[in-house]
Each structure stands twice: as structure tokens, then as C-alpha cells.
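Aim 2, interim progress. The first record below pairs a target sequence with its C-alpha cells.
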Amino acid sequence: MKELSGNLAKLEFEDLRADVLNVIPPQRAGDLARQAGLLNMNNRWVGVNWLTMESTVAPGIHVLGDATFPAPAMPKSGHMANQHGKVAAAAIIQLLKGGPVNATPVVMNTCYSFVSGEDAMHIASVHQYDAAEKTFKTVPGSGGVSAVASALEGRYALSWAQNIWADSLAL
């Protein structure tokens, strides 16, 4: 955005008038990754070895979640960061033991969005490591989106949230 004046946002390609603007700055990995010299993808993201989650610039430094340059169709979500952590932890254990890392990891993602006080929807996907392309690829037919928002999905969302928080934060 070049300029914001009243209800008018002057963007690079057009001017946009709105009552409410949610301005999101260009996204990138955090300052720590930048200061450590790890940003090697578009000068904004950390490239990783998906089998170990190690930086491709600095092996031995494991990077997770939003700081990484995503694999094709891989969402940036807390659930995915949780999955990255599990891949990294398993790899670190094997590397410390001098053993081989898992050559075929699978990660999954689920995100819920409430559309009312009770009703929610979800989107889900499964990603399998592709050795030929050295990245995760979405497993065909593995994911999906809720057909409609519902109170049942809302209950699933709350259960999912409790489980992911407990798993991620050792609650």
C-alpha cells in the first residue's frame, strides 16, 4: 500500500475505498531468522530439508512453521507447525543416535473456522514426502472442506483446539 487517507487506500495497481480496511503487511519469517542469515527463499523465508526440518543454509538449525518456505499447497497453520515439530523431533533423535531419518514422513493439517457462536467449518489435508522432488506433496483425495457450517463442526472444532493445544503446549 502506498498511502492510506480516510476511507481510501492507494494501492500499487488501484485505489480502494472501504469503511473498514484490514491492512496486512508483506509476510516473511521473523527477525531471528533474518538476523541469523537463514532467509534464502525469496529473501523472506527459510528453505528447509523436509526430512529433518534443517535449514538448507545452516544444517543443524531446525526451522518450523511459518518461518519456512512452504511445500506446494502446504498451509501455514499452527497444526502444520505442530507437525513440523514432530518431524524435526524424530529426525533429531535419529541424527543424535547416528541412525537414518524417516525417509517417508507424512504430515496432516486441519483448520477450523467459526462462522457464528456455535457453527464452524473445517479444511483438512494430508501431505506425503516425495523423495524425487524432495518436498511434501498433497495426497490426492486426502483432504476436504466442510459442506456446510454446523454446530456439530463447532463441537469438533473445540475438541480439536483442546487436543492441539495440549499436544503443542504439553497441557
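The second target in this work package is listed in the same format:
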Amino acid sequence: MGKGYGQYCPIARAAEIVCERWTPLVLRELMSGSCHFNEISYGVPLMSRALLIKRLKELETAGIITRKEKTSGQGSIYLLTPAGEALRPLIEQMGTWATHWTCERISPDQLDDQLLMWGMRRGINLNAVPPTKIVLQFDLRGLTKGKRKERSYWMVIEQERVDVCLKDPGFEVDVIIDADLSALTHVLMGYNSLEQALNEGSIAFEGPRDYVQQLPTWLYLKGERRYLSGLAPTVLGKMA
């Protein structure tokens, strides 16, 4: 931990643990169901692995998480302790507050295609998705990080499991989502309407009519105001 505040105040003591840079986002990932190091790292792509190791050790020392060795293979599993789980309402309220009270326009430097897909895969409305395997292809354009301006992702939904792939998994695609990254992010956040984006052509769907009609419900695109932390019901998945 960094230098403390030197106060007995409970808020100061809590801030010494929770308010270190990146710590709230690490907690967000743990609360979203990520328990392996690489899973947590996917959710904080701009955080160095060395710093992530340091923050995890600090949280373990503070009694917020516990680390267990995997029953098979190498590596560890990170789990919230009761003290860590008790922080869930605080982290959720931070997201809720920001959604309602900060600027509704997301700047280009805040856009992140990998983080968007990682968050989306945890927020699928599994109750609405057909029981068969569903494969979605996301053709994203207008990327702002790195040299690439376009990239495709594949989302495979099967048996209440959601996987996001950086490479074509080889399955038949059911629906193609062609979207500008900024437009899709604003719609997912509830800042802009899907109807407006479809009319403008910044988002387009291609596939069987019944699936295209159901897609907004699967992905929560009907104006649900939310933040893409994935603190919806936990869904296990991977970025392949």
C-alpha cells in the first residue's frame, strides 16, 4: 500500500485499501467472476502485469482476497473474502453514480474495443438467448487504440457460457454486428438509442430476421442504462 493518511477515521482507513490506483478496477474484475490472473488482466488491459501482481498481494495482505493454488496445473485462483464481498455495494454504486452524474459523452481516449467485448460477454441476457449454440460476429470500426482501425471479434454463447474470441473459432455465424466502436459503446451505456444508430448506419445487423429482432434483448440494447463493468450475474468466459 502507498503512504497512509495517518488518521483513525474509518473513511481514511478504507481509502488506504480501496483507493489505490487500479484497485477498484481489480475489485470490479474479481466481483465479475474473474478468478485467474489472466482473466483479471484482460479486464485491466492498460495495467502492467507487475503492478497487478503487487495490487493482488496488497489486497491479500489486507484480507480482501484470498489466493489458492489450482487443483490442477500451475497458477493460483483469487477469491474474495467476506470482507471483499462486503465491498460489492460500494463498487457497484461507484459505477451507478458515474453513469448518472458524469459526462454522458465518452471521449475517444476512453474507448477500448477489447474492454468493451470483455464487459459485454459478462452482461449477456442468457434468459433470452435460444438454448442452441449462438455465434455472433462483431466487426468493429473506428478503433482508437493502436494502429488498427478495424477488428473482428466472435462471441460464442452455449449452455449459459459465453466466450469471446479474437480469432475466428470456425463456427457458423448466426448474426453479424457491424458497428462503429463509439456508437456501440454509447448505445450499450444507454446514452444513445439503438434506433438512432441503426438509422444513421453506425450500427447494422445481418442475419436471420428472428435472430436480428431478438438481438437487442440478448445484448441489452433497448435503452437499458448501465455501465459495462460486468457486475451483472456472473458469467464465466474467456478471451480466446
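The beta strands are 65-69, 76-80, 134-141, 150-158, 161-165, 175-180, 203-206. This observation will shape the mutagenesis plan for the next reporting period.
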